[in-house]
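Reading a protein record of the kind used here takes only a little practice. Think of the row as the fold of the chain written in a discrete alphabet. With that in mind, consider the following protein and its fold in token form:
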Amino acid sequence: MKRAVRFAVVMAVVGLIVGAVAAEPPKKATPPKPGAKKPPANETKGQGQLVGANGQFGVVYTLDNNFNFEILSAKYTMEPLVAYESPAAKEGQKLVVIDFAIKNVSTGDNWFGDASDLITLVDEKGELVSSNGHGVALTSKGAKTDLNLRPGQGFGQPELHDPLRIAYVVPAKSRIVKIMVNHARKGKDEKVIRYYVAGAKKAEAGEEGDPKNVIAPLPPEIRDPSDPSGAVTLDVGKAEIGKWYASGRFGLRLDSFAYTTDAILDKNGPEEGKKFAVATVTAKNLTGSNIGFFDVYGGDEPLFAVTDADGEVAKPAGYRKASRDEGAEKDFKPGDEYTFRILFQVPKDIKAKAVTLATANSPKWLVDISNVK
């Protein structure tokens, strides 16, 4: 009987507690204090940032692949890199070239890989740029670079006087704010090493740029003066007679410009009321591959042109060898140069203002020839 009474008392108490809890209104979430800052999103194009370390140019890091690694410098450029697959800028593009050094710290031979997934670049809009080919090379080896190193062997150190470079093709108007090396430091629970580029803002890169991580600006003749970083290209570069300029896989140089009425186009002179404007040009293969002359002049869509003071444009009437009335033709081996003439038929009374130099689907350069008589 006593045991039954105790059980009844306990059940009554439990009932009172359950009723009290059920009657209590739910608690509201505590609102954030006025002025409280949200934690940084730390994202790139909506992706959470990978765990990693902050890097700095000139500092050596030992990577998880048993290589010491150091970024020495970086630059924006229009020139292709001589490599197994030579990255080259097309129209609306430029290159970022990074000089770096590696050293094998393992006890046996060690292959660095083809470096195609070594680095990812991030621009000011959060767009990612990765390598689109084997664009890495020692200056002395070019396309024949082999990244298999013996124990203790290094490539790219300044004292070796043989830069190790990797190139990335990026949009002409973009500005790189972050360089990510897709390796962890050895023994660290990381995925990447991040180099915040000098001048980058926290809002666009995730952190303020490091003053030591400088990407050198484009050459002044192709650099947009309205952009203080020197990263943005002009739509058309400003060129001069007698100087080299990179257009795609070639270097181009306007050697001279002149007018004539001589019979130099299949032994014929110009049409009645016209004269020939003759641009003598030298092209040089800047890559590690063989290239044909077709890639210089653009086939059915020629890139060379003469513009007069009224904005009228004349396209080529023919391509001739440097000193003979014969069609220009050349198979370019790496480093080969070839001089040829471009003939334009223009009215006798006009004075040309500029010559456009460009190879097929590649950056354009405008040469001022308004002083040529």
In short: Helices lie at 2-23, 202-205, 294-297. The domain at 236-368 is CATH 2.60.40.1240 (Immunoglobulin-like). The first helix runs from residue 2 to 23. The chain is about 10% helix and 35% strand.
